[in-house]
Amino acid sequence: MVELEVFEKGLRILAEGTRLSLETLSVLCVLVGLLATLRRTSMMRRQLRHSSDLPFTKIRLGFGAWLSLALEFQLGADIVATTTTPNTVNLIQLGVVALIRTFLNFFLAREMEMEHRMETQARSAQDNTPT
């Protein structure tokens, strides 16, 4: 029995370290995504000095991809927390994060597909323009 208790304690410590690591990665993804988005926005502003129109969709989709990655890590952290201490609060957190992640990924994928389609149409229109 003592061996089992030692194993359970070790498993809890491992799970807690894994959860903390995943949550840290989640926060870092948001931070890196924010910095990358600010950098991209700044670069685009410099490139498009004479235009007030920034390609908002590309900037937003780029940041959304970072948020999606952060949610993946957060979901992993919640799964680890739920498996070691399955209580109502952990299960609700897991469900909420999974739901948000699912919706975000669905709409991101849809918008990225639409953006790709629009770029393809714009390229084919440029290729068909008489010179």
From TrEMBL:
InterPro entries reported in the protein's UniProt record: DUF1622
Superkingdom of origin: Bacteria
Keywords: Membrane, Transmembrane, Transmembrane helix
Transmembrane segments annotated in the record for this chain: 20-38, 59-77, 89-108
Pfam families xrefs: DUF1622 (PF07784)
Protein name as annotated: DUF1622 domain-containing protein
